[in-house]
Design a protein that fits this description.
Number of helices: 10
Shape: globular
CATH class of the largest domain: Alpha Beta
CATH architecture of the largest domain: 3-Layer(aba) Sandwich
Radius of gyration: 18 Å
Structural class: alpha/beta
Order of helices and strands: EHEEEHEHEHEHHEHEEHEHEHE
Number of strands: 13
Distance between the termini: 35 Å
Helix content: 25-40%
Length: about 280
Amino acid sequence: MTVKIITDSSASIPPDVVEELGLTIIPSMIHFGEDVYRDGVDLTTEQFYERLTTDKTHPTTSVPTPQSFVDAYEKLAEEADEVVVITISQKLSAVGDVARQAMGLAKKRPRVEIIDSTWALMSEGLIVVTAARAAKDGASLDEVMALVRRNISRTDLRMAFDTLKYLERGGRIGKAQALLGSMLKINPILCLKDGEIYPAGREHSRSKAVENLYNFANSFSHVEEMAIGDGTTPEEADRLAERLNDKFPAERIFRFKVTAAVGAHVGPHVLAVAILGDR
């Protein structure tokens, strides 16, 4: 039986990887005032960051439409027997609820199983990629789901910021609320724990924040997959990937752009490292 994988645009999986693995990406909705766009479809990531840094209107996001999942289910019914939907953390977005709602609306669909990754960005994306590779190699639905659940606990993420204002505006700041109100200029380091945003440190310069990410990657005894992403600072991400070459081959590190679905909440100067491995 053929198994296909669906995920949401928050995973920020590079387009060439999406194409290679035959992934279906469901776009979140991006709002600039009354202008509404499908993440990565009507508005590219580059266009989003250009508008984010120049438009006086602060963007907001909303879950994908149920119809986008219905369309995906009905299309995949023609080519797959079973589908696994891997979503962003339920504590950050109700994408999983929309995916379930759409199951009852589709006129024709394969068997669908929905899993909350408890992650976002490429920590979610690495789980999706490994699942899609297994499915492409002939793994059964149960085998794919077991792999996903096993890798959820083997994944971690760190994000460096120059400001928390975007998270605060978007209401996604979670436990990192404790970092607000400091009179000092800080570069917060955030992580996800049990699907929720938590503070993982604070640095007094950007260079020290990047060093924090470098040390995070080096804390793993074994790295199976690594991804480094940015919003608008690709040179900075490239330098970090080169520094980590001794830990994990730079040519195998996924380089990703933080898509608008997350970029609206983290801002243009986010730098993120996601790892699938063991400590």
